[in-house]
Amino acid sequence: MARLKAFSLTPLLLLLLDFFQFVNSSNSSTNTTRETKLLYSKNSGICETSEGVGQYSGYINVGDDNFLWFWFFESRNDASSDPFVLWLNGGPGCSSMIGLFTETGPCTVNSDGKSTSLNPYSWNNYSNILYLDQPFGAGFSTGPTLTNSSAAATYAWTAFQVLFTSEAFADYSNRQFVLATESYGARFGPVFIDYFNSQNKLIDSGDLDGVKIVVSSLMINNGKHDPLINFQSLVAFAQDAPGYGPLVNNSVISTISKAFDNTCSTLLQDCYDADISKDSSADKCNTAITTCTDDVMTPAVGDRDADYLLASSDTDDTVPTTYYATYIRLDDVQEAIGATLLNSSPTFDQCDDTTHALFSQSGETGRTFLPELAALADSGFRILIWGGDADMKANWLGLHQSMVQMSWYGNHTLNDTTLTNMTINGGDVASYAVVDNFTFARVYEAGHTLPSYKPLVAQTIFQQFVANQTIHSVETSTPTPSASAADNASSTASVNAILIFNFVLSVMSGFI
Ligand SMILES: *[C@@H]1O[C@H](CO)[C@@H](O)[C@H](O)[C@H]1NC(C)=O
Ligand SMILES: *[C@@H]1O[C@H](CO)[C@@H](O)[C@H](O)[C@H]1NC(C)=O
Ligand SMILES: *[C@@H]1O[C@H](CO)[C@@H](O)[C@H](O)[C@H]1NC(C)=O
Ligand SMILES: *[C@@H]1O[C@H](CO)[C@@H](O)[C@H](O)[C@H]1NC(C)=O
Ligand SMILES: *[C@@H]1O[C@H](CO)[C@@H](O)[C@H](O)[C@H]1NC(C)=O
Ligand SMILES: *[C@@H]1O[C@H](CO)[C@@H](O)[C@H](O)[C@H]1NC(C)=O
Ligand SMILES: *[C@@H]1O[C@H](CO)[C@@H](O)[C@H](O)[C@H]1NC(C)=O
Ligand SMILES: *[C@@H]1O[C@H](CO)[C@@H](O)[C@H](O)[C@H]1NC(C)=O
Ligand SMILES: *[C@@H]1O[C@H](CO)[C@@H](O)[C@H](O)[C@H]1NC(C)=O
Ligand SMILES: *[C@@H]1O[C@H](CO)[C@@H](O)[C@H](O)[C@H]1NC(C)=O
Ligand SMILES: *[C@@H]1O[C@H](CO)[C@@H](O)[C@H](O)[C@H]1NC(C)=O
Asked: Which residues form the signal peptide (predicted)?
């Protein structure tokens, strides 16, 4: 259903882009600014309505007619010194507008699909944050469809070359840079940092002319780190999910356990062992992930919502839209945020099926991405691996096991460390373990898109992480806005929206 947005940026327009270099050609009707390779709308007044908090949204030209869509918000606290955060949703192929409007951004969209409410748990309370739609095909971004995260990394790097040499973003180029990813972002995160670091080395040695992109920390929630460990742990999770008990009966356990042992694990092991340079390896990996999903994941999930085991998947009368997706498709919203700068009627799909299919066919979704993460962890890099404990897509037992089985110096210590509860105003909200700069956290009663379910908990952990603090319990003397009420609200009323939304995503992508 996702089509590549065909348009042609004429050479004349490219010339115009150059002509307008560093000229703020404020357009009286749209406040559009054009810099070299960057065109955006400034302070559209959409979503972030807090007084004095700036925002930019638009397109980054990363070569030829290829453009990545971004939306950036200044910190509500101190934009001139707070960290710079890059948020990436997963898929692969899902728009980071999902994160912006339903997880960590400055607003949420009301049920009318036309108005927004400020999100007090937004991550821009403590950081400057940029949401990037990538790879091409995701959200408003447009360009050739890619087949793997390594290729995606090169365009993300180019995007930051443009941003950090632009007038609008130059101030952020030396700021503490935090990368926050979700789900398939378990692959984007380590691969992007790896690539950025290799480019930094070339710049240092004089072999490359460019701006260094120095990422200082990485946080991944509900990540797809390792299919083999994920599916194996899912069998145990379905049998007895900590805090929830058995999720399916013994006959289903027996079925999925046999499926894992007899086919899924063997196929995945074949995929892991295959020579990545051979075409047959892609086929093996694609077959493995499909088989494991059908024979282990699907029966384990049953009638539940894979994103949130406390909910049922029985949402068959929902239309394929969400409040935020309705909102972002409104003409006046698109005009205001600059989404129409390239094409007067851009299409928006929350997840791009073509990208998802190509990444699967290339074999990437079936492979482990632990080696890249292991190298970072082994170097003492600051990492937070966290997950909602009601998520079945990336069950937290599998997240923990992935970190324990990963090859890095802290694996034994992590294995031997009992998780400690974190409380907010005395209530248990999460449990965690720390090994130097590495933190693992399980967030109670949160689903796949963790911050949607537990906004206060997510914001609190985020705040501590970006401040270089060790995760810890907190007492808020003035509980404004009401802590538990907010997180309760999200686990009842507004979760209905999330559930519908997750259902749509599940149907559209299968693997988010
Ligand atoms: C301002 O933007 C509008 C809408 O995109 C366009 O029609 C108009 O020509 C622009 N005006 C100038 C002076 O660039
Ligand atoms: C342009 O920006 C100014 C402040 O930056 C704002 O007051 C005004 O409403 C904006 N105009 C439009 C058409 O968005
Ligand atoms: C986040 O910032 C908004 C706007 O400044 C404020 O209303 C809200 O209380 C802040 N949230 C928290 C949890 O402090
Ligand atoms: C990723 O895709 C690019 C472009 O198609 C290709 O050149 C490269 O070999 C691929 N890399 C991996 C690791 O598959
Ligand atoms: C176990 O659960 C499955 C799926 O819900 C159901 O079809 C089956 O009848 C159940 N078996 C028993 C023995 O309850
Ligand atoms: C933790 O990170 C800090 C800051 O980057 C670094 O100085 C320190 O060496 C790291 N610790 C370990 C044990 O690697
Ligand atoms: C733990 O990491 C070490 C490397 O530091 C590795 O040799 C070992 O295999 C890992 N343990 C497991 C169980 O994977
Ligand atoms: C983790 O602990 C279990 C026993 O509790 C042990 O069997 C396993 O080998 C340990 N793994 C690592 C990586 O230390
Ligand atoms: C940690 O929190 C969980 C969930 O509330 C609770 O069941 C458990 O008893 C707590 N553990 C400790 C040691 O307080
Ligand atoms: C956190 O540590 C990094 C180094 O790893 C440093 O650059 C940054 O300034 C620190 N941030 C804060 C808020 O202390
Ligand atoms: C939140 O929900 C729990 C049960 O789900 C309830 O015990 C608690 O009182 C609620 N808290 C608030 C502030 O509504």
From this structure: 1-25
Q: How far apart are CA 459 and CA 125, in angstroms?
A: 9
Residues contacting ligand 10 via CB (< 6 Å): 176, 216, 382, 467-468
> Count of domains in the chain?
1
Q: If you measure from the C-alpha of residue 218 to the centroid of ligand 10, how many angstroms do you get, rounded to a whole number?
A: 13
Listed in sequence order, the DSSP H helices in 379-511 are: 396-405, 411-416, 450-453, 455-466, 483-490, 493-509
Q: Look at residue 150 and tell me if it is in a domain.
A: yes
Amino acid at 251: S
Nearest one of 162, 216, 189, 139 to 437, comparing CA atoms? 216
- pLDDT over 90 percentage in the chain: 81
Residue ranges, the chain, pLDDT below 50: 1-29, 316-321, 482-485, 488-512
Q: Which of 229, 407, 415, 438 to mutate to test the pocket of ligand 8 (most atoms within 8 A of CB)?
A: 415
**In angstroms, what CA-CA distances link 164 with 60, 313, 361, 465?**
11, 43, 34, 24
Q: Is 389 a catalytic residue?
A: no
Of 391, 487, 490, 509, which is the active-site residue?
391
What CATH number corresponds to the domain at position 68?
A: 3.40.50.1820
Query: What SS3 class is residue 448?
Result: coil
Q: Are the beta carbons of 155 and 135 closer than 8 angstroms?
A: yes
